[in-house]
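Q&A log
Question type: sequence-to-structure
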Amino acid sequence: MAEETVPYGRKTQRPSPVTDVHILWITAGLSCDGDTISVTAATQPSIEDVLLGAIPGLPKVHLHNPVLAYEVGDDFLKYWYQAEQGELDPFVLVVEGSIPNENLSGEGYWAALGNDAMTRQPIPTNEWISRLAPKALAVVGAGTCATYGGIHAMEGNPTGAMGLADFLGWDWKSKAGLPIINVPGCPVQPDNFMETLLYLLYQVAGLAPMIPLDKELRPTWLFGKTVHEGCDRAGYYEQADFATEYGSPKCIVKLGCWGPVVNCNVPKRGWMAGIGGCPNVGGICIGCTMPGFPDKFMPFMDEPPGATISSAAVGVYGRVIRKLRGITNSTVNKEPSWRHNRNELTTGYKPTSY
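Response status: OK
Response body:
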């Protein structure tokens, strides 16, 4: 394998090209399965395109997701046992749902998938991750619960729920030298996840460089900008023209929107087929792609603490800018005087009476 330097300076190895890749998608974390359901709406690319080989250059992809699988029971779980025993190589491990701290569960367990063949006892989700992660080509967190703990990890967390990087370690690397790949969202934006998976599959095929990630392990091209930078309402903010009620097309910062400080591309990308997305349909951004969600963004419907200061500062010059732009707008909405400098018609038009 060739050694390569990733964008943030760490060295890793590029996987050799392969012909078949299995995706083991575990939904047995603390989860609502919302990320799996969301991803079925992706079109860039769609799950169908990836699995049916409609995208040139990709290896053959086999998906094993309990929500989407045809197989049930032992017919489904055999792939997991094969992966554990090194008979399903290479494979990508996708984790959906937050990971509970089983040290807090006493003699029981919080989350599990399948039963141990010898003991007939449920196999905790933690155990599956511990067994499979070291053998996986890559490990991907789907949704905010899997990436940073999400709702289940908020204050008062009785299960000790956490994200993948907290469970495996932020410096953890796969056997191919890949760091954990986080694709947050509550749920994950469909095309964000599938585009990340597509990039990863191209990398596995030797057709793409090391996936660029930020320090929170998110793909940089998807999470490098804030909601505000891609929002159609941002121009109203600049002019200190804020909405005072829902349904207004103006900036909704004062209604509780955290867009100026949240890394997310939904206003640009939309939700399904380029349509929708929180601010695009009048909803406030509550920061669901951020490691601090939900605790640092509550209560959701109140104006964010920093917004009071920043919107007041914007107000100092925003109203002046709005007034000056209004004057200019009025000026440029009139034709230049040289185009018609006489009172009579000059086009040769002769009105006809009937």
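Response note: Residues 1-12 have pLDDT under 50 and may be disordered.
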